[in-house]
Design a protein that fits this description.
16% helix, 9-stranded mixed β-sheet, 41% strand, 8-stranded mixed β-sheet
């Protein structure tokens, strides 16, 4: 697998105070199996879908306990240079670029409207070994109350072109690398409680959205939205039992026409 083009979502992980609980939950909902915890790297534990690495879970480092959340990483050929670009464009570097053995170099940052994300410069670990198959990452959206800030930032840090959905009722932008749409941005409405900060919502692929929602809620997840059919698939938004937000999508069940878009 070749290193992903700069700006491509390439990996996702999450900190959980109850890692065994998270493994049990996502194993049941997404069918994940798990590798051995790497004690050398803070008990970082990779998740696999059908034998392919698709995500990871890790316990919080001392002093970092708090709300569990998924972190999406964007590919970079030079994490240090990307960190500098993040700063230059009003972002905040939360964790300076750090080499992780020969796996690669990581960096954590926050964009100006508040969403936290990661940067990954791949070494022997290039990122997702599978996408858009059951259990694997499929899509992500930046949810923000300040879309202008987020739009300007992401377009400056990564080599994106952008299109806006041509619909007065929804403020939704799509970021492209060449012909590929790699990231969405949604303006948060008043439906979101004011205490919910900007965040990046990660979608995992499932074979049956309704079955995945039924299993997740049975195991203590909270259904936030859906299930709803769309031209992109049938999807639903959830919070897992430890509070981490994520979505599931069945990309084989589509309904309706693709929305019209305009270049911006």
């Amino acid at each position: 697998m070749a290193v992903q083009p700069e700006g491509t979502p390439c990996w996702a992980d999450a900190m959980f105070s109850d890692v065994e609980g998270a493994k049990s939950f996502y194993g049941d909902v997404l069918g994940w199996t798990f590798g051995e915890a790497s004690s050398e790297y803070g008990n970082y534990t990779q998740a696999y879908a059908d034998g392919k690495a698709v995500a990871a879970v890790v316990p919080p480092m001392p002093g970092q306990e708090g709300q569990s959340q998924w972190c999406l990483y964007f590919a970079s050929p030079d994490a240090a240079a990307t960190a500098e670009t993040i700063r230059e464009n009003g972002g905040e570097v939360l964790m300076e670029p750090m080499q992780v053995g020969d796996f690669g170099t990581m960096c954590l940052a926050r964009e100006p409207s508040g969403a936290v994300f990661g940067v990954w410069q791949g070494g022997t670990h290039e990122g997702f070994e599978a996408t858009a198959v059951p259990g694997a990452y499929c899509w992500a959206e930046v949810f923000t109350r300040e879309p202008e800030q987020a739009d300007t930032f992401f377009s400056a840090v990564f080599p994106y072109t952008a299109k806006q959905i041509d619909d007065a009722s929804v403020d939704f932008r799509m970021f492209n690398l060449g012909e590929n749409t790699v990231l969405g941005r949604m303006r948060m409405t008043d439906d979101f409680p004011p205490e919910v900060p900007s965040y990046i919502n990660v979608y995992f692929t499932v074979g049956d959205c309704d079955a995945a929602v039924a299993k997740a809620t049975e195991l203590g997840a909270i259904l936030r939205f859906g299930p709803m059919s769309s031209p992109f698939g049938r999807f639903a938004a959830l919070s897992d039992p430890q509070g981490a937000n994520f979505s599931v999508i069945d990309i084989t069940t589509t309904e309706g026409e693709m929305p019209k878009t305009m270049d911006v």
